[in-house]
Amino acid sequence: MAGQGPNLDSVRAALVPTGDLRAAINLGNPLLVTGETAGGEPVGVSPDMAAEIARRLNVGLRYVPYPSPGELGDDAGADAWDIGLIAAEPKRAETIDFTAPYCEIEATYLVPEGSPLTSVDVVDQPGVRIAISARSAFDLYLTRTLQHAELVRAEGLSASLDLFRAEGLDALAGLRPGLLKNATDHPGTLVLDGHFTTVQQAIGAPRGRAPEAAVFLEAFVAEAKSSGLVSDLIARHGVTGRLLVAG
To answer: What CATH architecture is 8-103+200-245?
Structure first.
């Protein structure tokens, strides 16, 4: 069980310096945050994971919402949050200590019907322009890996779709579930089979916290997957088949 290993008092001292667990939540992922309470607090898999951590530590919980993952990551060194529920990425790992992933989402492309881009493997070629949500996990991945295609960035998922359509770009990069909805809403587009990466959602703490924090969070994630907690949360929030338990 999570909590076995480091003494919980030492974990609380390392992870919850203010007395309440400040959990940073990325509101920009509609699979992980599926709604809000009447009081405006986020509802979904990632808020529930944070709530379970607070319960096991026997501390209060305060959500710290961010409209995008980039903004959440920017605050890693600002003492604004204690845990961040966000996709693990090498660039973000420069300032955040991540657990293993607890769930993952396929990332692929939306293209116009009749496009010569018929698979994810042929998208990276000269002259191809790809709309993308700036500083998303898949933006960071493609920034590292693309050799020829050009990324055209917009602030947020909706804005990247608008950019793709307004400028007649060759592809829109995104998470498969969201792109499938885009294709339904905008006839004349289709989602490519396969994926160029999987976005792996994890729990992170700002670098510099005592090691007890990382040990506790890593044990919590391992137990949350093996016990069925993550799969239960996925089912509870109606994202089965779109959000996958990480291996």
So the answer is: 3-Layer(aba) Sandwich (3.40)
| pLDDT tens by residue, 193-237 | 999 999 999 999 999 999 999 999 999 999 999 999 999 999 999
CATH 3.40.190.10 boundaries in the chain = 8-103+200-245, 105-197
Please give the single-letter amino acid code of residue 29. Answer: N
What architecture (CATH level 2) is domain 105-197?
Answer: 3-Layer(aba) Sandwich (3.40)
Entry pTM: 0.83
Q: 3-class SS at 145?
A: helix
Strands (E), 113-220: 129-133, 150-154, 171-175, 189-191, 197-206
Give the distance from CA 40 to its chain's centroid: 20
Residue 98: beta bridge partners?
204
- What distances in angstroms separate CA 170 from CA 103, 105, 129, 182, 220, one per listed residue? 29, 22, 5, 15, 42
As a dihedral over the C-alpha atoms of residue 205, residue 210, residue 214, residue 216, rounded to 10 degrees, the angle is -120
Return d(Cα 194, Cα 140) in angstroms, integer: 19
CA distance 2 to 5: 8
Tokens (6 digits) for 246: 């990480």
Burial of residue 179, with CB atoms counted within 10 A of its CB: 0-12 exposed, 13-18 middle, 19 or more buried: buried
